[in-house]
Write a structure and sequence with these properties.
The structure holds 2 protein chains of 2 kinds. Chain A is mainly α. Chain A has 13 helices and no strands. In chain A, helix 6 packs antiparallel against helix 7. Chain A is elongated, with a radius of gyration of 25 Å. The two termini of chain A are 28 Å apart. Chain B has 2 domains: 75 residues; 227 residues, MetI-like (MetI-like fold). Helices cover 77% and strands 0% of the residues of chain B. In chain B, helix 9 crosses helix 10 and helix 11 packs antiparallel against helix 12.
Chain lengths: 304, 322
């Protein structure tokens, strides 16, 4: 009684294997990623959050700077779900508009750091020798710099603005990408397909750009995703210290900074709770997505 | 091993020189250079006074000369004088340093005291409720912005409950003696230390758990169990001693992170440590003080890296340095 069932199962298994169509790296990664429930949830939250931040203020139609002394310092209510501040400004719409700033800064900083990291890593890994040595010592130096202090310094001395904050964050987040890309280049440039390309006369630049780069980028994806979380935390910390975005611009960190007296001395908890919760939820979601991507893209991980 | 220690230590010197050059140049590259912005901001200095100050601080010398003068001063203990107060930089920093070191030290001890037992217990009971809860909490802990955590603690314990003071390191309204003085100090430290150690604790717990899990599947652990040793001895003497090697490295590297992170804690709780001094000096464009603090922070980072490397070799006999 057991053996026919076993036989049927084995047949089914063979059939499934035979019918499996060829899958690309990305569809395979997506299949893996979907299994990581928290990562999927994180992705969902991020998509919703981005949509809310981009479209929300348009739908609400409230001016984030509109002052209403009749409704100042109000706790959360139906009219103002996240309460109001001492000028009676609606905190929900301010949160959404502030989220645009926070997310834009983090994305821009990660983008800049990837470009710099890929350039440095590719150059070091492909050129090798003296260039490699010099660039890797530079990476060592940047790893050893007290980054938070220097970010504070750059922003204070150069004046806080979108570009300055992006650059200050990017200056200290390209090294990981550079190391990863360098390692990929070192191993990939010895591969046969590169040798083949060289034999048929493909130039160095074209090999580095068209043949190695696409294969070297996979490990960068995970580190870039997690980099968004770090960038959000740094921007928020800067703005919380009063060094980042200045009023009337208010990122989540800046809203926290402006909420300090209201929360500590007057007990208006909603002023601090909501901006911090936004940062927390965003960073947590990004971390989960990064975790899921790491599992999905890890070639050593066997198919279960 | 001896030669390795010396060789590795010597490697730190060019690194430190490289760092000091980057720091020095970064300050020089600000628009207008030193003095320009602070004078313009204050609006009180005449051209004459600016000229005198430039001469006094040697700002008209070529950059390499300025760098050598400054670096030589750092080595010989002459860190220059503050543009703002006119006091020696080294003394100004040393006044503030103990507070920051106290916060860093306490946060480090707390992080270890929580992370070690929780991480080990979670690993030995993988997939248990305790494991799920502690892993969940530590994943969440990494994502909590420390300043938000601090603000919410202040709301709860200072505003709502009135249990803990909201700022400073001691009660300025009255002098306490005996046990009351001790409680006064402790009550001022509880929240800042909790905020500072939050992320380190969460990260370290994850490392301890991961490191233990790797070791627990090794053959020698099974052998130890198989030879009838009590479970406690297997975990502590056989498994943990090996799992501890990477944990020590990570823990050492966390010290400079805590030290730098103290800037945020000091800001939330209005504690006048080195972090606040740094922000005040950045506001005032007080370059000698900024350079001094950056030097201390950079040396700490390099020393922690060096120590982590050396400890790794010392603790793991499988690593040999020819």
């Amino acid at each position: 009684m057991a053996s026919p069932a076993l036989g049927a199962g084995a047949d089914a298994a063979t059939e499934i294997v035979l019918q499996t169509p060829a899958r690309s790296l990305w569809s395979d990664a997506w299949r893996q990623f979907r299994r990581h429930r928290l990562a999927l949830a994180g992705l969902g939250v991020l998509v919703l959050l981005t949509a809310a931040v981009v479209l929300g203020p348009l739908i609400l139609g409230t001016d984030p700077q509109a002052i209403d002394f009749g409704a100042k310092d109000e706790g959360p209510s139906l009219a103002h779900p996240a309460g109001t501040d001492e000028l009676g400004r609606d905190q929900l719409v301010r949160l959404l508009v502030g989220g645009r700033l926070t997310l834009a800064v983090a994305s821009a900083a990660v983008l800049v750091s990837i470009v710099v990291g890929v350039l440095v890593g590719a150059l070091a890994g492909y050129a090798g020798g003296f260039v490699d040595n010099a660039l890797m010592r530079l990476v060592d130096v940047f790893y050893s710099l007290p980054s938070l202090f220097i970010v504070i310094l750059l922003v204070t001395l150069l004046g806080a603005g979108f570009a300055t904050i992006v650059i200050a964050i990017a200056v200290f987040s390209w090294m990981n990408t550079a190391r990863l890309v360098r390692a990929s280049y070192l191993s990939l440039k010895e591969k046969e397909y590169i040798e083949a390309a060289r034999t048929i006369g493909v130039g160095d630049f074209r090999i580095a750009l068209r043949h190695i780069l696409p294969n070297a980028l996979t490990p960068v994806i995970v580190s870039a995703t997690l980099g968004i979380a770090t960038a959000i935390l740094i921007e928020s910390a800067l703005s919380f210290l009063g060094l980042g975005f200045q009023p009337p611009q208010a990122s989540w960190g800046a809203m926290l900074n402006q909420s300090q007296t209201a929360v500590i001395n007057q007990g208006h908890w909603w002023r601090g709770f909501f901006p911090g919760a936004m940062i927390f939820v965003t960073v947590l979601s990004v971390n989960y997505v990064g975790d899921g991507l790491r599992d999905a893209l890890d070639p050593r991980k066997e198919e279960r | 091993m001896g030669t390795y220690v010396i060789r590795r230590s010597l490697q730190a010197i060019p690194l430190l020189i490289g760092i000091s050059i980057v720091i020095f140049l970064m300050l020089q590259m600000t628009p207008g250079g030193p003095l320009a912005s602070s004078e313009a901001g204050g609006g009180r200095a005449t051209a004459e006074r600016t000229e005198r100050l430039r001469e006094e601080f040697g700002l008209d010398d070529p950059l390499p000369v300025q760098y050598v003068n400054w670096a030589g001063g750092i080595v010989t203990g002459d860190w220059g004088t503050s543009y703002n107060t006119g006091r020696p930089v080294l003394g100004t920093i040393l006044d503030r340093l103990p507070t920051t070191l106290l916060l860093t030290g306490l946060a480090f001890v707390i992080a270890l005291a929580i992370a070690l037992p929780v991480g080990i217990l979670a690993a030995t009971r993988q997939y248990s409720v305790f494991d799920y809860v502690s892993s969940g909490v530590s994943f969440v802990g990494v994502a909590i912005p420390s300043f938000w955590f601090g603000l919410m603690l202040l709301y709860l314990f200072s505003f709502r409950l009135g249990w803990l003071p909201s700022s400073g390191l001691e009660d300025l309204r009255m002098q306490h003696v005996g046990p009351a003085a001790l409680w006064d100090r402790a009550s001022h430290l509880i929240m800042p230390v909790a905020v500072l150690s939050l992320i380190a604790t969460a990260q370290l717990t994850r490392y301890v758990r991961g490191s233990m899990l790797e070791v627990l599947h090794e053959d020698y652990v099974r052998t130890a169990r198989g030879s009838g040793l009590p479970e406690r001895s297997v975990i502590v003497r056989h498994a943990f001693r090996n799992a501890a090697i990477p944990v020590v490295t990570i823990a050492v590297l966390m010290v400079p992170e805590l030290f730098l992170g103290a800037v945020i804690t000091e800001s939330i709780f209005a504690i006048s440590g080195m972090g606040r001094l740094f922000i005040e000096s950045a506001d005032l464009r007080d370059y000698p003080v900024l350079l001094g603090i950056l030097t201390i922070a950079a040396v700490l980072v390099v020393l922690a890296n060096l120590l982590a490397d050396l400890l790794y070799g010392l603790l793991d006999p499988r690593i040999s340095y020819g």
